[in-house]
């Protein structure tokens, strides 16, 4: 009795330490080390969520030129103040809408930034939402891995997730990845239950179909995850019995979930594929979205897919979030596990991962761990569980493994220390007051939330090089700056039928973090707009005189002949942000 009481007390003590650690890191990453959302995709989804919270339906204030082209080609009426959101999957947006409604964020005045504010408070609300899903995902992976292996391996994976600086950075982006990780973990838990049932010669129908339900929700969080479902569907067709019933059931469930968005896209723009599909062409999503040309182009797609696939292979550890043992999963494919269910389930994971990699290869993936299309991290906890199981088997043959206490678990201590190293370094930087700049990815929050909001009206349409930020922080409708003067003029012609373009907003986003050649290629004949503040400063000449002979720039901002002759500087030299207005600028309350 006493022994059991001592055991229970020790277990309670360990769980209390884990809970305190979890809460402490949650507060650290949502309060002390948080300086704003770090992903423009996350920012974009947040602003769409606010529109939904306001009762405006699935509409966006971030307008992509290609969306306008789609609507024109399909003879749809265009209202620039009510553009349908057809780029993002809807589920994360709806989650944000519910959260923002609860905190009163549908009213812009409730969260206005003051002059001394360094952070837009709604950014923190979004980050807390993402971090909450991360905590749920940790719990789900603990349940899943403890069922596949045992509680010890599950506890180690949970600690590795908690100590992963990369995972916490994801919570600060606003991306749907933490919601996706939660849904994917739930789907895999049910898929595992189905495998267990199949191996025990019980009917796997119910858990297999329930897993399809969560895969459907996952697809509504990010369309790229349809590739993961394809992998699971193939596994289910070959493994589960009865094959036909489960295969048809999974297909019908997925069709049920994606039918709504497809119908919405078709009725709103005349294109059932939505806007995101066109990111596959023109060599990149940004170029495709900014071009006023919806012609599908697959030129060079095979070469780009091969290049992206090779990039994934060479950076797989980085994409798996630095979870040190996740890549060891691939070694597990050659290990003869005693339990057939464990051996079989690894092939399910592999097939899903392969198809996810194919999808990422086709649509492209940058080297950044925080790429919006990054799906590898969804597999990281499961792969890590398999990796730890393999290392534990190898360790069991080492003489030290027979020792009690710390020495017997030395391999676990080393794994946790290596995993936690980036987090420890991050905390040390915070303690040394080496905080990052409050300007995130070239976005000066206050210049948008304050000055730009005040010099524009609710019904103004702005053309900007950072329209996602204008939509979220300034709460204004913004069209993405096209790459050519001709496309700029086409957009103006569209707007003349309703609300004319009110102004042009240019910031350091057009060149930040890039060499001048890349910037010139991305912005084409409008690239000079971004460099005007710098040229003006270093040459001591007025920008208008510098650009007076530029056939693409002068008709826009020249004080004498330009369509947007009135200028307002919104921020300083090192984060230049300028607004050129059609009419004389006046500051509104």
TrEMBL record:
<feature type="transmembrane region" description="Helical">
    <location>
        <begin position="12"/>
        <end position="32"/>
    </location>
</feature>
<feature type="transmembrane region" description="Helical">
    <location>
        <begin position="319"/>
        <end position="337"/>
    </location>
</feature>
<keyword id="KW-0472">Membrane</keyword>
<protein>
    <recommendedName>
        <fullName>Glycosyltransferase RgtA/B/C/D-like domain-containing protein</fullName>
    </recommendedName>
</protein>
<feature type="transmembrane region" description="Helical">
    <location>
        <begin position="125"/>
        <end position="145"/>
    </location>
</feature>
<feature type="transmembrane region" description="Helical">
    <location>
        <begin position="151"/>
        <end position="168"/>
    </location>
</feature>
<keyword id="KW-1133">Transmembrane helix</keyword>
<feature type="transmembrane region" description="Helical">
    <location>
        <begin position="375"/>
        <end position="395"/>
    </location>
</feature>
<feature type="transmembrane region" description="Helical">
    <location>
        <begin position="344"/>
        <end position="363"/>
    </location>
</feature>
<feature type="transmembrane region" description="Helical">
    <location>
        <begin position="212"/>
        <end position="238"/>
    </location>
</feature>
<feature type="transmembrane region" description="Helical">
    <location>
        <begin position="407"/>
        <end position="427"/>
    </location>
</feature>
<keyword id="KW-0812">Transmembrane</keyword>
<feature type="transmembrane region" description="Helical">
    <location>
        <begin position="245"/>
        <end position="266"/>
    </location>
</feature>
């Amino acid at each position: 009795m006493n022994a059991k009481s001592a055991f229970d007390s020790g277990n309670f003590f360990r769980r209390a330490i884990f809970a305190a650690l979890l809460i402490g890191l949650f507060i650290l990453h949502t309060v002390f080390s948080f300086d704003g959302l770090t992903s423009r995709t996350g920012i974009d989804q947040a602003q769409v969520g606010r529109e939904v919270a306001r009762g405006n339906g699935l509409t966006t204030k971030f307008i992509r030129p290609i969306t306008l082209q789609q609507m024109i080609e399909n003879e749809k009426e265009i209202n620039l103040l009510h553009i349908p959101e057809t780029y993002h999957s809807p589920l994360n947006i709806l989650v944000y809408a519910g959260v923002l409604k609860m905190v009163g964020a549908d009213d812009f005045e409730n969260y206005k930034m003051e002059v001394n504010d360094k952070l837009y408070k709604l950014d923190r609300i979004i980050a807390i939402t993402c971090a909450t899903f991360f905590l749920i995902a940790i719990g789900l992976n603990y349940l899943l891995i403890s069922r596949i292996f045992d509680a010890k391996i599950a506890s180690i994976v949970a600690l590795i997730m908690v100590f992963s600086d990369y995972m916490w950075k994801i919570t600060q982006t606003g991306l749907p990845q933490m919601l996706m990780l939660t849904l994917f973990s739930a789907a895999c838990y049910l898929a595992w239950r189905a495998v267990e049932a199949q191996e025990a010669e019980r009917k796997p129908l119910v858990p297999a179909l329930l897993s399809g339900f969560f895969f459907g929700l996952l697809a509504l969080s990010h369309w790229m995850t349809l590739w993961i479902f394809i992998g699971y569907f193939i596994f289910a067709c070959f493994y589960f019995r009865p094959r036909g019933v489960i295969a048809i059931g999974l297909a019908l469930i997925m069709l049920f979930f994606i039918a709504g968005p497809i119908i919405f896209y078709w009725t709103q723009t005349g294109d059932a594929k939505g806007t995101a599909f066109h990111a596959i062409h023109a060599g990149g999503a940004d170029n495709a979205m900014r071009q006023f040309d919806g012609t599908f182009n697959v030129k060079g797609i095979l070469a780009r897919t091969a290049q992206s696939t090779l990039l994934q292979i060479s950076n797989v550890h980085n994409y798996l979030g630095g979870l040190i043992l996740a890549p060891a999963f691939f070694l597990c494919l050659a290990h003869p596990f005693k339990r057939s269910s464990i051996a079989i389930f690894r092939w399910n994971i592999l097939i899903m991962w392969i198809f996810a990699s194919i999808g990422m290869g086709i649509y492209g993936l940058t080297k950044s761990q925080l790429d919006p299309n990054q799906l590898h991290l969804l597999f990281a906890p499961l792969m890590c569980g398999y990796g730890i199981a393999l290392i534990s088997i190898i360790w069991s043959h080492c003489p030290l493994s027979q020792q009690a206490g710390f020495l017997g678990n030395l391999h676990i201590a080393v794994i946790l220390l290596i995993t936690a190293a980036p987090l420890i370094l991050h905390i040390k930087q915070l303690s040394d007051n080496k905080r990052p700049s409050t300007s995130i990815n070239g976005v000066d929050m206050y210049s948008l939330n304050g000055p730009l909001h005040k010099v524009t009206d609710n019904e103004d349409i702005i053309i900007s090089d950072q329209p996602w930020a204008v939509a979220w922080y300034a709460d204004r409708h913004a069209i993405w700056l096209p790459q050519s003067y001709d496309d700029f003029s086409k957009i103006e012609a569209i707007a003349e039928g309703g609300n004319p373009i009110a102004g042009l907003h240019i910031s350091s986003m057009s060149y930040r973090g890039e060499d001048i050649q890349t910037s010139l290629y991305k912005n084409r004949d409008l690239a000079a707009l971004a460099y005007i503040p710098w040229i003006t400063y270093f040459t001591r000449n007025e920008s208008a005189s510098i650009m007076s002979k530029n056939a693409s720039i002068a008709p826009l901002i020249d004080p004498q002949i330009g369509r947007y002759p009135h200028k307002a500087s919104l921020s300083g030299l090192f984060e230049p942000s300028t607004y050129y207005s059609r009419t004389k600028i006046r500051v509104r309350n």
